[in-house]
Amino acid sequence: MQALDKKLFRDFRRLWVQAVAIALVLSCGVALLLTSFGMYQALDDTRAAYYERNRFGDVWLDTRRAPETLLPELRAIDGVYAIEPRVVGAAILDIEGRSESAVGQILSWPEDDDPLLNVPLLRSGGYPAPTSTRDVMVNEPFAEANGFEIGSVFHANLNGQRRELRIVGTALSPEYIYTISPGGMMPDNEGFGIIWMPERAVAAAFDMEGAFNNLSVRITQDASEDEVIDALDRLAEPYGGLGAYGRAQQISDSFVTSEIAQLRGMAMVVPPIFFAIAAFLVSMVMGRIVALERSEIGLLKAIGYSDLEICLHYLLLAGFIAVVGIAIGWGAGTWLARGMAVQYAEFFDFPYLLFRVPGWVYAISGLAALVTTMLGAARAALAAARLAPAIAMQPPAPPRFKRSMIDVAMARLRLSQPTVMILRSFFRWPGRSAMTCLGLGFAVASVVAASFVNDALENIVDVAFYQSNRQDAMLLFTENVPETTIAEVRRLPGVLQAEPQQYLPAILRNGPLEKSLAVEARRPGTDLSRVIGADGEVSTAEPGGMLLSERLASQLDLGIGDMVEVEFLSGRRETHEMVVTGLVEQYFGLGAYADLDYLNQVFRQSPQMSVVNVTLDDNELEALHARLKDIPRLSGLIMMNDTRRSFQDTIRENVVVMNTVYIVIAVLITVGVAYNGARIQLSERARELASLRILGFSRGEVSYVLVGETMLLALVAQPIGWLLGAGIAQAMVGAFSSDIYSMPLILKPDIFSRASLVVLAAALASALIVRRRLDNLNLVSVMKTRE
Amino acid sequence: MAEVIFRTEDITKVYDTGEVKVYALAGVSLELYAGELAVLLGPSGSGKSTLLNILGGLDHVTDGRVWFRDLELTDLNDRGLTRFRRDHVGFVFQFYNLVPSLTARENVQLVTDVAPDPMPAAEALELVGLGHRLDHFPSEMSGGEQQRVAIARAIAKRPEVLLCDEPTGALDSKTGVQVLEVLKTINDQFGTTTAVITHNAAIQQMAHRVIQFQDGKINEVHVNETRIAPHEIVW
User: Fold this and answer.
1) Which positions in chain A touch B78 (Cβ < 8 Å)?
2) Is B59–A393 a contact, with Cβ atoms under 8 angstroms apart?
3) Interface of A with B (CB under 8 A)
4) Residues in CB range of A410: below 8 A, 6 or more apart
5) What ipTM was reported for this prediction?
6) Each residue of B84-110: pLDDT tens digit?
7) Is the CATH code 3.40.50.300 the one for domain B35-57+90-232?
């Protein structure tokens, strides 16, 4: 090994604490880039491959009942490549050994075993025989969650008929990567299953012979989705068309898409912040090293080392930091990616797991870290290369301090000399001070952004589950039933309170803007399912009026007092003008609310409902479930307590992990910035501080100068960090917001104080560690060495 | 007549600080001969170090010309000067300029790694009487020892010229004499042209020639008819 290389290794060993402090910051960037970008790629590729191979549809259409004779016309629509008609139904399931009832989504299975679109991937067993009335294929996660095997049986209430079904196969479908029951909020593989049944049996059960009620469409590459949707809606209108929709509104796909978008956003925004901080730290440390080794550089040049060799020598030193950072980052990133893959496996049902971070993502993240570090070191390395040997061996000129307004102010304030030293150094290198504050600010912001999510989710849970939806369960019916049915529900065991509600599929329009969704209609004074206004008060839709969620209102560009055109897609399919009477802050879905009695009146019909909200006596739950399984026309059941619990569990788990990760990140950044800053200060000030000691200052007084400057920078960083954190939180709210979810921007004072506490404590600890070196300062030798 | 190693022709060096122009060298013409040990004497700021830096290819002249044998240094760019230093020149500085993170042997290896025909590092250290301290770090050595490591480093490449800027400036007289002994031995044994800057007038007695500087000019050149050994020098 060459002597210069040995110097390199020893320099690195001498600097290892500083180097590791920087490497850790760098590794955060590498790990996050690896995880988010790798996962983004993996998810995106897997989805694309899955959709392509299994011919995932582009557009869907639900109708009440359309005849098969309509199919040629549908096929002839401009831009339609293929269509797949189906009969879709819902059924309450009775599974042995499970007291609660489960819900099944029934899909018809074509006789030729060859669906054109949304082809399920067989996982075990086989397809149901075309003539069988009891053989079914179910989705694999449902089978696994319930311990089903090929040949297992369960019961289903098919349109009022109790039937025994036998599992002959399990499959996965691109339509159900994220499997969530209609009206559900969380995946529940045990309580919700996809059931493929021979089409003859399904048609017979749901009275759909020669007809279909669901259509999947694949469009040609050059087709316009909107035009196809319009054409489908036009043709389906006489048959109770409920509005065609594209992938953006396909529940499974929109969840996967929003996850992919989140990962992508994270990959683009977060790692560069870490890289920038690491580059700044490298530049600061390398700058100092070059300053300290000035005479050595001069010597090396005198001996005959070229500028390039010198430049490379210092770049290599920074390269070591990068190598350590990359190694740690790859390790941590691989671990994080594995953890994330496990999470995805829990929420998403992909047939093949491409959740391995591709090799080139490792290369990219490593390269990004290396380039960043080199950029950080470039200035110092170039300065070393440019240093003329004759000048290098002279001691550098002392830094020039000029008198400024600040000095005048300091003189007025009669500050002590150590305080003046702190302030002067702060203002003497404004760029460095600003960058240090910015770095520490990011540490504060990291904690703010993480804590904010916690509060926001708590608020969501509170509003969604304790203020708005207070029912213990929701009973969903296949279609509108007379409101008098509620009396039957009230007679069910364990039902304490029951309130009717109606979901009406509709298209809301304001000029060219439109949105299809389900309008929720309720009685005024409803107690179990309420609408909470933006002011936090219970809000009621007046007759003729409509309450809109804020997001929906902004999407349709509507405000209070505006008229909105509502095309109802069920019943008589009438269009009515309604006035927006209030806005609602809502975090799940796009809500639109109307008065149930008013709509019944407008539709000239006897009172109808499609949902009953109930409160239950927990002691009678088993008896209730036993009865529910036999109620005709009940298509679904949502146990809100289960939803609440699983939602809160998921949140709690995620929040704990997220808070830990972000606090660790904040501490790493703080230590990286504060420790290196203090070390550099100590190195620059060793003579100064030793002189103070010789002049009779105590250790404490001298420490004050060192720790004081670090803490001054940390204090100035706080408001910067608060602002950055609030900005990041706002960006997260924007990025997170989709038609499915949104997040409120809630910034409580205590998250700021917590963030500050974490960062100030870490900064103080870093400064105190460096301060210990002051105790070992050999006063005589410091004063004797030349600098 | 001995071969001319260095020749300067009316060189000047001006440091322009913006407000004032400082003439570090104001027209110096000089020849240094092969195998010669020359002492450059003069007060601080008289131009000795500037001349030495220029001869060693560490600095450029403002005006005038410099030759090393037939090679005109004033024609060379930075790359050429680097090459020149690497191949021909050994330096010794007042403050040793050892790399603290390298041992004595490794400090010498810094040079032997890049020189075309070096002697083994251990041999160079043996020559300066440090054969027993090869693996000590600078912080573990006395000032005299450190300076001898610096000399070993300078001679390990078998340079044709050895340029020493105040080699004893930071040493007490006893260790200073040891260092001068080493310089003399090298000069005698290898015939290395050696230029020693000092403002310690006592040292001039060991030189072949003494060149006196004053205000950026050569004041006087004096040839020693009889030289004395370093151990006879006292200051």
Assistant:
1) 307
2) no
3) 2-4, 6-7, 10-11, 14, 295-296, 298-307, 388-390, 393, 786
4) A419, A420, A423, A424
5) 0.71
6) 888 898 888 877 778 777 889 888 888
7) yes
